[in-house]
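re: ur question from yesterday

yeah so i grabbed the chain u mentioned. its 109 aa long if i counted rite. heres the sequnce exactly as i have it in my notes:
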Amino acid sequence: MGHSDIAPLRKQDPGEKFPWKKLKNKGLGVWHNNSKLKLKKINEKKMIDSFFKNLYKFGYRYCDTKKRGKNDKYLIKAFQRRFLPKNVTGAIDQKTFIISHFLANHLKN
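ran it thru and got these structure tokens back, copy pasting raw so excuse formatting
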């Protein structure tokens, strides 16, 4: 995990350019498998609630899984910096959600 994964309110490193996928290819860390990223569409509220539950299950402990707060955007951006570096918006879109679902449910922590 990078600093922004552990302390998303204070840190933004290692940033979007850090080679997380290359590290996974060398046997270090985790990454998602694009070929398995398929889910049925769900409504936005359920997607947002599930996203934060997925993050918590995956190891991000800097969020409240039951209520949304003003700092959630920092956590979303930290997640996107690591797993969706070309789409760091701070918004939970379908792809961000699907990656969180894959990581929370298909990888052994």
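noticed a couple things. The helical segments are 3-6, 20-25, 44-58, 72-83, 94-106. also The chain has one domain: 3-27+43-106.
anyway ttyl
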